[in-house]
Amino acid sequence: MISKLTRRTLGAAMIGAALMAGTATAATPDPENTLVMELKCGKVTIALRPDLAPKHVEQIKALTAKGFYDGIIFHRVIDGFMAQTGDPTGTGMGGSDLADVKAEFTEEPFVRGTVGAARSSDPDSANSQFFIMFAEGSFLNGQYTVWGNVTEGMDCIDQINKGEPPTDPDKIISLKILKDVK
After folding, report:
1. Fold annotation for 4-180
2. pLDDT digit string (tens) for 81-132?
3. Contact 151/174 with Cβ under 8 angstroms?
4. Helices (H), the chain
5. pTM metric for this prediction
6. Angle (CA) 114 177 118, round 5°
7. Do 84 and 95 touch, CB atoms closer than 8 A?
8. What is the rounded end-to-end Cα distance, in angstroms, of the chain?
């Protein structure tokens, strides 16, 4: 017998794989809850998940609207695991001037393309930093907040320079809410 969590993890992984392989079509993106990230290799589209993490999504949207993420580097990129960004100091120790966000943990699994809130050892310390999964990371399930999923552009995420920190870090050229993209 397969547990409820295992069924959910397998289902999310299959849907994500189908979308990334182009064998399924995503619903029309919600312009209020879709981010468009411009990287050196192209665009990455992220569907926000206010159904899972409304406070985190609100914070990310507020920072994005202010242009906070434009020019910020990917400061921690571990091959086969994840790419982390969102620190204006580039050290992994910085954040925004907004208050930290209380954890919004769910049963949503961390699979390839999942976007999660980075934090310190304090579960309620998420601020501006986030990470995008290169692969499944079930050990994060229920311990980090999922606030989005990459729906297009994982090929660009895969090309981000690796390292902790990378020798020549890639940066977010721009991050915008779809409704604001001209």
Report:
1. Cyclophilin (2.40.100)
2. 999 999 999 999 999 999 999 999 999 999 999 999 999 999 999 999 999 9
3. no
4. 4-21, 54-65, 154-158
5. 0.85
6. 35
7. no
8. 50
